[in-house]
């Protein structure tokens, strides 16, 4: 049994182009199952990092200084191995660098200039991930700030309707893995790191399944949300109930977000308390078109 699911973040448009890209990502990941489970989640996230519709890799949002700093992570539930990069700049696919950290170092997380140098040492070529749209958005907001105005734009990016973290969970023959990538939050302080590269906060995988998070990263870190979901699964809680409980816990903190989780049997849960949370699910090579994330309202 091969199951893979990807999300494009909370507050991301569910318009046809976005859903088509998410399905393409899930199918790309599914096609990589032949090479292995970790290959599958990495390939799915690479697809989203290459797509300027999403806030990961090419198309990432700009920080307060007008630069892109990206975070990414990957984790193999069977072995417990994981790798991550934080505030990395000028690479095309941060998730691939995160995998190199996992497989070719004794570390879990590399950040900033050290992460970028590691990427160069491993053969990753310099790449400018800034799109014309994100640069224009940053300039528009900075001009408004100089005039003392506040623009009503996405809490996560500078675009009217955009996205935050991208994530993927997958199961192959009862083993789970996860991967995640983001450009972070729009106009963040330089050096700010959210939950995406924080193992246990924004991502976790174990013999009991896998989970990835998106939304207000600081809240997910404080709550150790991804690991908390997996702890519930280890206690026998169904994946749908575990994800719902985690989002209710998040909402109690006054935060907005979404969680995508999977158990070893391939049961997938997508729960959020935002306006939107587009997800694509592929099971044994078939796109499950009627899979709808659950939206929770209230605390």
TrEMBL record:
Residue ranges that the Swiss-Prot or TrEMBL entry lists as coiled coil: none
Gene3D superfamilies referenced in this protein's UniProt entry, alphabetically: (Glycosyl)asparaginase
Cellular component GO terms, alphabetical: cytoplasm
Pfam families: Asparaginase_2 (PF01112)
Annotated substrate binding sites: 192-195, 214-217
Top-level taxonomic group: Bacteria
UniProt site positions, description: Cleavage: 164-165
Keyword terms, alphabetized: Hydrolase
SUPFAM superfamilies with a match to the protein in the record: N-terminal nucleophile aminohydrolases (Ntn hydrolases)
Protein's recorded name: Isoaspartyl peptidase
